[in-house]
Target: DUF177 domain-containing protein
Amino acid sequence: MSDTPRIHLGSLLRTAGDAHAEGELDHLTYLQGDQSQTLQFAEPAPFEIEINSLEGDELYLQGTFEPTLIMECARCLREVHVPLEIELGTLMRYDPAVQEPFLEEADTGEEVLVFGDPDLNLSAYLAETTLLAAPLSVVHDEACKGLCQVCGHDLNEGPCEHMAQVPVEEIDDQLGIPEGTTHASQNPFAALRDLKLSDD
Ligand SMILES: [Zn+2]
Ligand SMILES: [Zn+2]
Model:
């Protein structure tokens, strides 16, 4: 298992052809501005990448990356494993003046991976691609009850004393979640209400 996904493009840049790289990553470390960021994966994430030379300084990258991203449940913060199957397909441009590879938006709106080091580090590219493919938020279970807004108690493990004191509607407002999705199962009248709705 390697820490840094790299692909060697030296000979590809000298003579047209293709280059291949594959491996497994248990995390990705990349720079965002000056900050070092890390994406953790729940299990070794296989990648397979092929790069072909096109006209001039342009190349084309294609392949697959299958990370299982570790995210947090939006309601109770429990760890959630999100398996992703990413198809890679990105235009690339070689510019020897470039230090760190970056994604640039071309006139066509297409993203172009610009790089200057023939020993190309794909960490930032794979990290950005992963974040784009990941859902904005996840819940560990559709029926997750979340945390008590007063004491932080995990309501999946049972009610806390505040449940009796804070009206259900008020809790829902605080959570910003439409009434009925989070606390319906705790509301003894939920079943009755559903019954009424289906009559309409
Ligand atoms: Zn949850
Ligand atoms: Zn509480």
Q: What stands out?
A: The chain has two domains: 6-133, 155-199.
